[in-house]
Specification:
Blueprint lengths: L2 H16 L7 H14 L3 E5 L5 H17 L4 E6 L2 H13 L6 E5 L2 H4 L7 E6 L6 H8 L3 E9 L10 H10 L4 E3 L7 E5 L1
The structure holds S-adenosylmethionine (SAM).
C-alpha cells in the first residue's frame, strides 16, 4: 500500500474513532489484505460500508494485486445509511479509488436477492443480528475457490446466535481467527 493511502487511512481511522463510526481494526485490515494477496482476489462484495475504511483498505490491496496480474479490481459495497453512504463516496473519491468501487445505497437484505453475479470474495460487516440472513444469501454468490469473511464474530457472538446455529446445521467448514486481542473473524473457503 502506498504511503498516501496509508496516511489517508490513518486520518480516516482517527476521524472514525472520534465520531464513533465503526471500522475494522488495523490488524483485521492486515489480515484481510493477506487473504486478498493469497487468493488474488479481484472482485469483492462488501455488506456494511460505514465511512469506507475497510472499502479503501480492500481497494488499495486489490489494486496492487491487480497491477501485477494486469487485471482490474472491482468492489461492490452496500450500506443502508444515507449519511454513511455519502461519507464513503466522498472518502473513496479522496483516496482515488472511485474507479474500483461501486457504492450501493440499500438494505443488504433487499439488495442481495437482486444480484446474479458471483464474486471472488464477500465481506460481511453489517448489523450483527442480520448476519444469518445476509450469509444465507451471500454464500451462494461466492465463486468456487473464493472466500467469505464475517467480522466481529467473537465480541458479538450473542447477537449472532442464529448465524452460528445456521452454519453448524449446514455443516459448512469454517475457521475463527482472532485478529484482535478481543475479537475475531469467521472465514469460509469455497
Ligand atoms: C460495522 S459498520 C461497517 C464498518 C466498515 N466495514 C469498515 O470497516 O469501515 C456497519 C455498517 O453496516 C451498515 N448496515 C447494517 N446493516 C445493514 C444492512 N442490512 N444493509 C446495509 N447496510 C447495513 C450500517 O449502516 C453501518 O454503516
Amino acid at each position: 500500500m502506498d504511503s498516501n493511502t496509508k496516511a489517508f487511512l490513518g486520518l480516516l481511522k482517527s476521524r472514525n474513532l472520534s465520531a464513533s463510526v465503526p471500522s475494522i481494526s488495523l490488524e483485521t485490515g492486515e489480515f484481510l489484505a493477506g487473504l486478498v494477496r493469497k487468493h488474488s482476489t479481484m472482485s469483492l462484495l462488501e455488506l456494511g460500508t460505514a465511512h469506507g475504511y475497510s472499502t479503501i483498505t480492500f481497494a488499495a490491496v486489490m489494486s496492487e494485486v491487480g497491477a501485477k496480474a494486469e487485471d482490474s479490481p472491482r468492489i461492490v459495497t452496500v450500506d443502508f445509511s444515507k449519511p454513511s453512504y455519502d461519507a464513503a463516496v466522498a472518502n473513496v473519491l479522496k483516496a482515488w479509488f472511485s474507479h474500483v468501487v461501486e457504492h450501493v445505497f440499500a438494505d443488504a437484505l433487499n439488495f442481495l436477492p437482486t444480484l446474479a453475479e458471483k464474486f471472488d470474495a464477500v465481506f460481511i460487516d453489517a448489523e450483527k443480528r442480520s448476519t444469518a440472513r445476509i450469509f444465507e444469501m451471500a454464500w451462494p454468490l461466492v465463486r468456487e475457490g473464493g472466500w467469505l469473511v464475517v467480522d466481529d464474530v467473537v465480541k458479538f457472538r450473542g447477537k449472532m446466535a442464529d448465524f452460528y446455529a445456521h452454519v453448524e446445521k449446514l455443516g459448512i467448514p469454517h475457521e475463527i481467527v482472532m485478529t484482535d486481542s478481543d475479537d475475531g473473524v469467521m472465514i469460509f473457503l469455497k
